[in-house]
Amino acid sequence: MNPMTTTALVADDEPLLREHLRLQLATLWPDLQVVAEARNGREAIELFDEHAPAIAFLDVHMPGLNGVEVARAIGGRARVVFVTAYDQYAVQAFEQGAVDYLVKPIDPDRLALTVQRLRQPPAASAAQTDLEPLLDALSQRLQQQAPARQHLQWIRASMGQSVRLIPVEEVVYLRSDEKYTLVAWPGGEALIRKTIRELADELDPDRFVQIHRSVIVALPHISHVTRGANETADVHLRGRKEVLPVSRSFVHLFRQM
Length: 257
Fold this sequence. Notes:
This protein has helices at 15-28, 41-51, 67-74, 88-96, 108-118, 128-145, 196-202; strands spanning 6-11, 32-38, 55-59, 79-84, 100-103, 154-159, 162-167, 173-177, 180-185, 188-192, 208-212, 215-218, 222-227, 233-237, 243-246.
């Protein structure tokens, strides 16, 4: 890759919209390289950590983690452009924040203005601390708009010749194990044939948080969190010896703890 090439991530749950934005960007900014395309918020974080692009185009309304939550996980490591379909409140908030925004369907002239802004050096005043109140306000707004949904209540785990029904409220943590997911609860451990990404979208976000691309933990079972080097941390559990890693993309969850 040319060291002068600017890289970008495009995150949208609609494949045609991702392709349309990528083609528009190729026309307006030939030197921009889209290094990754994400279908949802969690994939966006994983691909961002893998490719470290300079710019992230984030759809606001994505399944699992929305674009605002992804922006918070990215922190100040990239310049963020939000893409929104209809939320006028969000548009007004973006106009006052240290980010850019695009409204679907994306107008070529408006995208050209965004490209012009992105090709300029970022302003020193656009600090991440200035972005936090905006992200908080947008997150609250999205929660108010989100329809009520039923969260997972039981996890089925095959144990020998029997099937164990594990109450979700007893689960301490879940950890990805190649093609399986390890479920840990006070009564033992079990492997299930379901990815941690699928489980993350079904669990109650008020009880469970993802702290690593391969780990989800239940908040009531956290004893304390210790800070590590390079913006990482470790989660210690109540009455258990395991120590769970917190990656840089999720350490912001514990900054207020």
